[in-house]
Write a structure and sequence with these properties.
- By secondary structure, this protein is α+β, with helices and mostly antiparallel strands.
- It contains four helices and four strands.
């Protein structure tokens, strides 16, 4: 049997429509990989105090993971804080110290004044 013109047009239109399933699968995988990468890397619990202090000293300002789901931005000096912020001393747990003085954290001056 010979296909009709209407049947050929319908097949051609079906071939042109994009299949969304592969795109959705790709986006889901990309989202999972991004989340995993954001959580990867060493924590201060796997570093010595000297290593953690060295990172802050050499970088000036750095975000350190202090546990599986915790992190903060640590700075070498107040020059790494935004205007209206001041540096407060910070201690973190490392592999060899319960309280390692790594530098400081930037905090709003308004918080110091009770505002």
């Amino acid at each position: 049997m010979e296909q009709t013109r209407v049947g050929l047009v319908a097949e051609a239109e079906a071939d042109r429509k994009p299949n969304m399933k592969p795109i959705l699968v790709f986006l889901a995988i990309a989202g999972l990989a991004t989340g995993a990468m954001a959580q990867s890397g060493p924590t201060t619990l796997n570093m010595t105090c000297a290593q953690a202090r060295g990172i802050v000293a050499s970088q000036g300002a750095v975000v350190l993971r202090t546990g599986p789901t915790t992190y903060d931005r640590y700075v070498r000096a107040s020059s790494f804080c935004a205007p209206g912020e001041t540096v407060h001393p910070a201690w973190i747990r490392t592999a060899d110290a319960a309280q390692c003085p790594v530098g400081g954290v930037c905090r709003s001056v308004d918080l110091e004044n009770g505002r």
